[in-house]
Amino acid sequence: MRPSPLMVSSEIGRLRSVLLHRPGKEVENLTPDLMDRLLFDDIPYLEIARQEHDAFAKILTDRGVEVLYLEDLAAEALEDREVRGRFVEDFLAEGHIPGEGTKAALRELFLGLPVREMVDRMMAGVRRTEVPQGRSRSLADRLDTDNPFAVDPLPNLYFTRDPFATIGTGITLNHMRTETRNRETLFAQYIFRHHPRFRDCTIPLWFDRHETTSLEGGDELILSPEALAIGISQRTDAASVEMLARRIFQDGQTFQTVLAFNIPKKRAFMHLDTVFTMVDRDKFTIHPEIEGPLQVFSLTRRGQDVHIEEEHATLEDVLKRTLGLDRVTLIRCAGSDPVDAPREQWNDGSNTLAIAPGEVVVYSRNYVTNRILQENGITTHVMPSSELSRGRGGPRCMSMPLVRDAV
Ligand SMILES: NC(=O)NCCC[C@H](N)C(=O)O
Protein backbone atom coordinates (compact mmCIF):
# COMPACT_ATOMS: atom_id res chain seq x y z
CA MET A 1 0.00 0.00 0.00
CA ARG A 2 1.19 3.50 -0.83
CA PRO A 3 1.13 6.34 1.72
CA SER A 4 -1.90 8.60 1.68
CA PRO A 5 -1.81 11.22 -1.13
CA LEU A 6 -3.84 13.49 1.16
CA MET A 7 -2.45 16.05 3.59
CA VAL A 8 -4.44 18.94 5.04
CA SER A 9 -3.37 20.23 8.45
CA SER A 10 -4.74 23.79 8.32
CA GLU A 11 -7.36 26.04 6.75
CA ILE A 12 -4.79 28.41 5.24
CA GLY A 13 -1.70 26.46 4.09
CA ARG A 14 -0.92 27.09 0.40
CA LEU A 15 -3.52 25.10 -1.53
CA ARG A 16 -1.95 22.51 -3.81
CA SER A 17 -4.84 20.23 -4.82
CA VAL A 18 -8.60 20.69 -4.52
CA LEU A 19 -11.80 18.88 -5.54
CA LEU A 20 -14.60 20.80 -7.24
CA HIS A 21 -17.77 19.84 -9.11
CA ARG A 22 -18.76 21.95 -12.11
CA PRO A 23 -22.54 22.50 -11.83
CA GLY A 24 -24.47 20.23 -14.22
CA LYS A 25 -28.07 19.86 -15.33
CA GLU A 26 -28.98 18.95 -11.76
CA VAL A 27 -29.09 22.64 -10.79
CA GLU A 28 -31.89 23.26 -13.32
CA ASN A 29 -33.71 20.01 -12.51
CA LEU A 30 -35.37 22.01 -9.75
CA THR A 31 -38.94 23.23 -9.38
CA PRO A 32 -40.36 25.61 -6.77
CA ASP A 33 -42.10 22.64 -5.08
CA LEU A 34 -38.82 20.67 -4.85
CA MET A 35 -36.56 23.48 -3.60
CA ASP A 36 -37.24 22.91 0.07
CA ARG A 37 -36.57 19.16 -0.05
CA LEU A 38 -33.50 19.64 -2.27
CA LEU A 39 -32.12 22.43 -0.04
CA PHE A 40 -32.20 25.34 -2.51
CA ASP A 41 -33.68 28.82 -2.02
CA ASP A 42 -33.98 29.63 -5.71
CA ILE A 43 -33.28 28.04 -9.08
CA PRO A 44 -29.88 28.85 -10.64
CA TYR A 45 -29.48 29.64 -14.36
CA LEU A 46 -27.06 26.85 -15.36
CA GLU A 47 -25.23 28.68 -18.16
CA ILE A 48 -24.25 31.58 -15.88
CA ALA A 49 -23.62 29.30 -12.89
CA ARG A 50 -21.09 27.42 -15.03
CA GLN A 51 -19.41 30.64 -16.13
CA GLU A 52 -19.12 31.68 -12.47
CA HIS A 53 -17.77 28.28 -11.49
CA ASP A 54 -15.22 28.36 -14.33
CA ALA A 55 -14.08 31.77 -13.05
CA PHE A 56 -13.66 30.19 -9.59
CA ALA A 57 -11.59 27.33 -11.03
CA LYS A 58 -9.46 29.79 -13.04
CA ILE A 59 -8.59 31.79 -9.91
CA LEU A 60 -7.23 28.53 -8.48
CA THR A 61 -5.44 27.14 -11.56
CA ASP A 62 -3.87 30.55 -12.31
CA ARG A 63 -2.19 30.22 -8.92
CA GLY A 64 -0.88 26.75 -9.50
CA VAL A 65 -3.61 24.82 -7.71
CA GLU A 66 -4.42 21.39 -9.15
CA VAL A 67 -8.20 21.40 -9.71
CA LEU A 68 -9.79 17.93 -9.83
CA TYR A 69 -13.43 17.47 -10.76
CA LEU A 70 -15.71 15.04 -8.91
CA GLU A 71 -17.37 13.98 -12.16
CA ASP A 72 -14.02 13.07 -13.73
CA LEU A 73 -12.78 11.11 -10.70
CA ALA A 74 -16.11 9.29 -10.41
CA ALA A 75 -16.08 8.24 -14.07
CA GLU A 76 -12.44 7.08 -13.78
CA ALA A 77 -13.25 5.14 -10.59
CA LEU A 78 -16.16 3.37 -12.34
CA GLU A 79 -14.26 2.23 -15.46
CA ASP A 80 -14.45 -1.40 -14.31
CA ARG A 81 -17.82 -2.84 -15.37
CA GLU A 82 -18.28 -4.91 -12.22
CA VAL A 83 -17.56 -1.93 -9.97
CA ARG A 84 -19.89 0.18 -12.13
CA GLY A 85 -22.64 -2.41 -11.73
CA ARG A 86 -22.29 -2.35 -7.94
CA PHE A 87 -22.34 1.44 -7.92
CA VAL A 88 -25.58 1.52 -9.93
CA GLU A 89 -27.19 -0.97 -7.52
CA ASP A 90 -26.16 1.09 -4.48
CA PHE A 91 -27.30 4.28 -6.18
CA LEU A 92 -30.71 2.84 -7.06
CA ALA A 93 -31.11 1.26 -3.62
CA GLU A 94 -30.73 4.66 -1.98
CA GLY A 95 -32.68 6.55 -4.62
CA HIS A 96 -36.16 5.64 -3.34
CA ILE A 97 -37.24 4.51 -6.80
CA PRO A 98 -41.05 4.08 -6.88
CA GLY A 99 -41.27 0.56 -8.35
CA GLU A 100 -39.24 -2.44 -9.55
CA GLY A 101 -40.15 -1.79 -13.20
CA THR A 102 -38.85 1.78 -12.97
CA LYS A 103 -35.73 0.57 -11.20
CA ALA A 104 -35.09 -2.00 -13.96
CA ALA A 105 -35.55 0.66 -16.64
CA LEU A 106 -33.13 3.02 -14.85
CA ARG A 107 -30.56 0.22 -14.44
CA GLU A 108 -30.74 -0.45 -18.17
CA LEU A 109 -30.55 3.28 -18.95
CA PHE A 110 -27.48 3.90 -16.77
CA LEU A 111 -25.54 0.76 -17.74
CA GLY A 112 -26.23 1.39 -21.42
CA LEU A 113 -24.38 4.72 -21.33
CA PRO A 114 -20.64 5.45 -21.63
CA VAL A 115 -19.39 5.82 -18.06
CA ARG A 116 -18.92 9.58 -18.03
CA GLU A 117 -22.40 10.14 -19.49
CA MET A 118 -23.76 7.73 -16.91
CA VAL A 119 -22.20 9.77 -14.10
CA ASP A 120 -23.64 12.99 -15.52
CA ARG A 121 -27.12 11.45 -15.82
CA MET A 122 -27.00 10.09 -12.25
CA MET A 123 -26.00 13.50 -10.95
CA ALA A 124 -28.63 15.29 -13.06
CA GLY A 125 -31.49 13.02 -12.03
CA VAL A 126 -33.91 11.27 -14.42
CA ARG A 127 -37.37 12.64 -15.13
CA ARG A 128 -40.28 10.18 -15.14
CA THR A 129 -40.92 11.20 -18.76
CA GLU A 130 -37.39 10.06 -19.65
CA VAL A 131 -37.84 6.50 -18.35
CA PRO A 132 -38.88 3.96 -21.00
CA GLN A 133 -42.05 2.25 -19.72
CA GLY A 134 -41.02 -1.35 -19.13
CA ARG A 135 -43.39 -4.30 -19.52
CA SER A 136 -43.42 -5.42 -15.89
CA ARG A 137 -45.11 -2.48 -14.25
CA SER A 138 -45.96 -2.98 -10.62
CA LEU A 139 -48.62 -0.98 -8.84
CA ALA A 140 -45.91 1.34 -7.54
CA ASP A 141 -44.68 1.89 -11.11
CA ARG A 142 -48.19 2.79 -12.24
CA LEU A 143 -48.96 5.12 -9.35
CA ASP A 144 -48.81 8.74 -10.35
CA THR A 145 -46.92 10.88 -7.83
CA ASP A 146 -46.36 14.61 -7.78
CA ASN A 147 -42.60 14.01 -8.05
CA PRO A 148 -41.60 14.62 -11.70
CA PHE A 149 -38.43 12.57 -11.18
CA ALA A 150 -37.96 8.80 -11.31
CA VAL A 151 -34.71 9.43 -9.43
CA ASP A 152 -33.98 12.81 -7.87
CA PRO A 153 -31.32 15.22 -9.10
CA LEU A 154 -28.38 15.98 -6.81
CA PRO A 155 -28.20 19.81 -7.11
CA ASN A 156 -25.96 20.24 -4.04
CA LEU A 157 -23.05 18.30 -5.54
CA TYR A 158 -21.14 21.49 -6.38
CA PHE A 159 -20.79 21.99 -2.64
CA THR A 160 -17.96 19.48 -2.49
CA ARG A 161 -17.06 20.66 1.03
CA ASP A 162 -19.73 18.57 2.69
CA PRO A 163 -19.91 14.89 1.59
CA PHE A 164 -16.39 14.10 2.80
CA ALA A 165 -13.63 16.07 4.50
CA THR A 166 -9.84 15.71 4.38
CA ILE A 167 -8.32 15.85 7.87
CA GLY A 168 -4.59 15.17 8.12
CA THR A 169 -3.89 12.17 5.88
CA GLY A 170 -7.38 10.72 6.26
CA ILE A 171 -10.99 11.56 5.54
CA THR A 172 -14.37 11.62 7.18
CA LEU A 173 -16.75 9.97 4.70
CA ASN A 174 -19.83 11.69 5.96
CA HIS A 175 -23.38 10.69 6.82
CA MET A 176 -25.41 13.71 5.79
CA ARG A 177 -28.44 15.05 7.64
CA THR A 178 -30.75 14.81 4.62
CA GLU A 179 -31.53 11.99 2.22
CA THR A 180 -30.98 14.20 -0.78
CA ARG A 181 -27.37 14.88 0.17
CA ASN A 182 -26.55 11.46 1.61
CA ARG A 183 -26.53 9.91 -1.87
CA GLU A 184 -23.74 12.33 -2.80
CA THR A 185 -21.39 10.51 -0.42
CA LEU A 186 -21.60 7.36 -2.58
CA PHE A 187 -19.41 9.06 -5.21
CA ALA A 188 -16.68 9.71 -2.65
CA GLN A 189 -16.90 6.17 -1.30
CA TYR A 190 -16.29 4.67 -4.77
CA ILE A 191 -13.59 7.21 -5.66
CA PHE A 192 -11.51 6.45 -2.55
CA ARG A 193 -12.02 2.70 -2.94
CA HIS A 194 -11.55 2.33 -6.70
CA HIS A 195 -9.87 5.36 -8.28
CA PRO A 196 -6.19 4.66 -9.25
CA ARG A 197 -5.08 7.78 -7.40
CA PHE A 198 -6.43 6.53 -4.07
CA ARG A 199 -7.31 2.83 -4.11
CA ASP A 200 -3.93 1.38 -3.12
CA CYS A 201 -3.22 4.06 -0.53
CA THR A 202 -3.43 4.01 3.26
CA ILE A 203 -6.14 6.61 3.81
CA PRO A 204 -7.51 6.48 7.38
CA LEU A 205 -11.30 6.72 7.68
CA TRP A 206 -12.29 8.95 10.62
CA PHE A 207 -16.00 8.51 9.96
CA ASP A 208 -18.06 6.37 7.57
CA ARG A 209 -21.24 7.04 5.65
CA HIS A 210 -23.09 4.15 7.34
CA GLU A 211 -22.84 5.76 10.79
CA THR A 212 -26.25 6.55 12.28
CA THR A 213 -25.41 10.09 13.39
CA SER A 214 -24.83 13.00 11.04
CA LEU A 215 -21.61 14.82 10.11
CA GLU A 216 -21.17 17.35 7.31
CA GLY A 217 -17.90 18.84 6.05
CA GLY A 218 -19.03 22.44 6.42
CA ASP A 219 -18.78 21.85 10.16
CA GLU A 220 -15.20 20.56 10.00
CA LEU A 221 -12.41 23.17 10.25
CA ILE A 222 -8.69 22.56 10.80
CA LEU A 223 -7.37 25.38 12.99
CA SER A 224 -3.81 24.03 13.17
CA PRO A 225 -1.90 20.71 12.99
CA GLU A 226 -2.87 20.28 16.64
CA ALA A 227 -6.47 21.52 16.75
CA LEU A 228 -9.78 21.02 14.95
CA ALA A 229 -12.95 23.10 15.27
CA ILE A 230 -16.17 21.19 14.62
CA GLY A 231 -19.65 22.69 14.66
CA ILE A 232 -22.48 21.00 16.51
CA SER A 233 -25.06 22.40 14.15
CA GLN A 234 -28.28 21.96 12.20
CA ARG A 235 -26.38 19.33 10.24
CA THR A 236 -23.84 17.72 12.62
CA ASP A 237 -24.53 15.71 15.79
CA ALA A 238 -22.45 15.83 18.98
CA ALA A 239 -22.00 12.03 18.88
CA SER A 240 -20.33 12.34 15.46
CA VAL A 241 -17.84 14.87 16.81
CA GLU A 242 -16.82 12.59 19.67
CA MET A 243 -16.55 9.60 17.32
CA LEU A 244 -14.20 11.38 14.91
CA ALA A 245 -12.13 12.81 17.78
CA ARG A 246 -11.65 9.33 19.27
CA ARG A 247 -10.57 7.82 15.95
CA ILE A 248 -8.19 10.64 15.06
CA PHE A 249 -6.59 10.59 18.54
CA GLN A 250 -6.14 6.80 18.38
CA ASP A 251 -4.44 7.01 15.00
CA GLY A 252 -1.53 9.11 16.24
CA GLN A 253 -2.07 12.05 13.88
CA THR A 254 -0.77 15.42 15.10
CA PHE A 255 -4.16 16.58 16.36
CA GLN A 256 -4.45 16.84 20.18
CA THR A 257 -7.63 18.92 20.58
CA VAL A 258 -11.07 19.02 19.02
CA LEU A 259 -13.12 22.11 19.85
CA ALA A 260 -16.84 21.47 19.48
CA PHE A 261 -18.81 24.71 19.04
CA ASN A 262 -22.50 24.45 19.81
CA ILE A 263 -23.98 26.90 17.28
CA PRO A 264 -27.60 27.97 16.65
CA LYS A 265 -29.53 25.29 14.76
CA LYS A 266 -30.91 27.36 11.92
CA ARG A 267 -30.67 27.32 8.13
CA ALA A 268 -28.69 30.58 7.88
CA PHE A 269 -26.12 28.97 10.22
CA MET A 270 -26.41 25.47 8.72
CA HIS A 271 -22.67 24.78 9.14
CA LEU A 272 -19.90 26.33 11.24
CA ASP A 273 -18.24 27.56 8.03
CA THR A 274 -21.24 29.72 7.18
CA VAL A 275 -20.44 31.87 10.22
CA PHE A 276 -16.69 31.36 10.74
CA THR A 277 -13.70 30.81 8.46
CA MET A 278 -9.94 31.26 8.91
CA VAL A 279 -8.26 33.72 6.54
CA ASP A 280 -4.77 34.07 8.04
CA ARG A 281 -2.63 32.77 10.93
CA ASP A 282 -4.41 35.11 13.36
CA LYS A 283 -7.38 36.43 11.35
CA PHE A 284 -10.92 35.03 10.98
CA THR A 285 -14.13 36.12 9.33
CA ILE A 286 -17.10 35.67 11.61
CA HIS A 287 -20.78 36.44 11.83
CA PRO A 288 -21.34 38.72 14.83
CA GLU A 289 -23.87 36.29 16.32
CA ILE A 290 -21.20 33.74 17.19
CA GLU A 291 -18.77 36.03 18.96
CA GLY A 292 -20.02 34.52 22.14
CA PRO A 293 -19.99 33.65 24.87
CA LEU A 294 -20.48 30.30 23.15
CA GLN A 295 -20.88 26.85 24.65
CA VAL A 296 -17.59 25.19 23.67
CA PHE A 297 -16.51 21.64 24.47
CA SER A 298 -12.78 20.84 24.41
CA LEU A 299 -12.11 17.20 23.57
CA THR A 300 -8.49 16.33 24.28
CA ARG A 301 -6.47 13.17 23.95
CA ARG A 302 -5.81 11.45 27.30
CA GLY A 303 -3.83 8.31 26.46
CA GLN A 304 -6.32 6.12 24.62
CA ASP A 305 -9.28 8.10 25.91
CA VAL A 306 -10.99 11.42 25.19
CA HIS A 307 -11.23 13.98 27.99
CA ILE A 308 -14.13 16.44 27.64
CA GLU A 309 -14.33 19.88 29.26
CA GLU A 310 -17.15 22.39 28.83
CA GLU A 311 -16.85 26.16 28.96
CA HIS A 312 -18.76 29.26 28.01
CA ALA A 313 -16.22 31.53 26.39
CA THR A 314 -15.87 34.09 23.65
CA LEU A 315 -14.60 32.86 20.31
CA GLU A 316 -11.69 35.27 20.65
CA ASP A 317 -10.52 33.80 23.97
CA VAL A 318 -10.87 30.21 22.74
CA LEU A 319 -8.90 30.93 19.56
CA LYS A 320 -6.11 32.82 21.35
CA ARG A 321 -5.67 29.99 23.86
CA THR A 322 -5.90 27.17 21.31
CA LEU A 323 -3.53 28.78 18.82
CA GLY A 324 -1.16 30.25 21.42
CA LEU A 325 -1.66 33.79 20.13
CA ASP A 326 -1.56 37.06 22.07
CA ARG A 327 -4.24 38.47 19.80
CA VAL A 328 -6.57 37.42 16.99
CA THR A 329 -8.47 39.61 14.56
CA LEU A 330 -12.14 38.77 14.12
CA ILE A 331 -13.36 40.36 10.88
CA ARG A 332 -17.08 40.72 11.31
CA CYS A 333 -19.28 40.08 8.31
CA ALA A 334 -20.11 43.49 6.83
CA GLY A 335 -18.68 45.12 9.94
CA SER A 336 -21.72 43.98 12.00
CA ASP A 337 -23.98 46.45 10.21
CA PRO A 338 -27.54 45.41 11.23
CA VAL A 339 -28.64 45.25 7.59
CA ASP A 340 -25.49 44.47 5.59
CA ALA A 341 -24.24 41.75 7.97
CA PRO A 342 -27.27 39.42 7.83
CA ARG A 343 -27.61 40.04 4.08
CA GLU A 344 -24.00 39.23 3.32
CA GLN A 345 -23.87 36.30 5.75
CA TRP A 346 -26.99 34.87 4.06
CA ASN A 347 -25.03 35.07 0.77
CA ASP A 348 -21.95 33.51 2.38
CA GLY A 349 -19.92 36.60 3.13
CA SER A 350 -18.21 34.70 5.94
CA ASN A 351 -17.56 31.62 3.80
CA THR A 352 -14.10 32.29 2.31
CA LEU A 353 -11.64 29.79 0.81
CA ALA A 354 -8.01 30.45 1.73
CA ILE A 355 -5.51 29.58 -1.01
CA ALA A 356 -2.57 30.77 1.10
CA PRO A 357 -2.17 32.56 4.44
CA GLY A 358 -3.88 35.96 4.07
CA GLU A 359 -5.17 35.20 0.55
CA VAL A 360 -8.80 34.16 0.05
CA VAL A 361 -11.47 33.65 -2.62
CA VAL A 362 -14.69 35.57 -1.96
CA TYR A 363 -18.07 36.19 -3.63
CA SER A 364 -18.35 39.49 -5.50
CA ARG A 365 -21.79 40.21 -4.06
CA ASN A 366 -20.41 40.56 -0.52
CA TYR A 367 -18.60 43.80 -1.32
CA VAL A 368 -18.96 45.31 2.18
CA THR A 369 -17.24 42.34 3.85
CA ASN A 370 -14.71 42.12 1.01
CA ARG A 371 -13.66 45.74 1.56
CA ILE A 372 -13.22 45.13 5.28
CA LEU A 373 -11.09 42.05 4.55
CA GLN A 374 -8.88 44.19 2.30
CA GLU A 375 -8.65 46.88 4.98
CA ASN A 376 -7.35 44.14 7.31
CA GLY A 377 -4.57 43.26 4.90
CA ILE A 378 -6.25 40.21 3.33
CA THR A 379 -5.78 39.65 -0.41
CA THR A 380 -9.20 38.89 -1.89
CA HIS A 381 -9.74 37.07 -5.18
CA VAL A 382 -13.26 38.11 -6.12
CA MET A 383 -15.41 35.67 -8.10
CA PRO A 384 -18.82 36.25 -9.71
CA SER A 385 -21.59 34.78 -7.57
CA SER A 386 -25.13 35.70 -8.59
CA GLU A 387 -26.24 32.22 -9.66
CA LEU A 388 -24.00 30.00 -7.51
CA SER A 389 -25.10 31.73 -4.30
CA ARG A 390 -28.70 30.60 -4.86
CA GLY A 391 -27.65 27.24 -3.40
CA ARG A 392 -26.70 28.93 -0.11
CA GLY A 393 -22.98 28.17 -0.17
CA GLY A 394 -19.78 30.14 -0.81
CA PRO A 395 -16.21 29.47 -2.01
CA ARG A 396 -15.31 27.28 0.99
CA CYS A 397 -18.52 25.27 0.55
CA MET A 398 -17.71 24.68 -3.12
CA SER A 399 -14.27 23.16 -2.50
CA MET A 400 -12.63 20.25 -0.70
CA PRO A 401 -8.85 20.60 -0.28
CA LEU A 402 -6.88 17.39 -0.84
CA VAL A 403 -3.38 18.82 -0.24
CA ARG A 404 -2.22 21.98 1.47
CA ASP A 405 1.33 23.00 2.40
CA ALA A 406 2.12 22.94 6.12
CA VAL A 407 1.79 26.35 7.75
N1 LIG B 1 -20.37 24.06 3.79
C1 LIG B 1 -21.50 24.65 3.45
O1 LIG B 1 -21.95 25.60 4.08
N2 LIG B 1 -22.18 24.13 2.40
C2 LIG B 1 -23.37 24.75 1.86
C3 LIG B 1 -24.38 23.72 1.49
C4 LIG B 1 -25.62 24.34 0.83
C5 LIG B 1 -26.65 23.26 0.48
N3 LIG B 1 -27.77 23.85 -0.30
C6 LIG B 1 -27.21 22.59 1.74
O2 LIG B 1 -28.24 23.08 2.24
O3 LIG B 1 -26.63 21.61 2.19
UniProtKB/TrEMBL annotation:
Keyword Cell cycle on entry: no
Molecular function via GO: arginine deiminase activity
Top-level EC class: hydrolase
Positions of the catalytic residues: 397 (amidino-cysteine intermediate)
UniProt entry tagged with the keyword Ligase: no
Compartments in which it is found: Cytoplasm
UniProt name for this protein: Arginine deiminase
Organism per entry: Aminomonas paucivorans DSM 12260
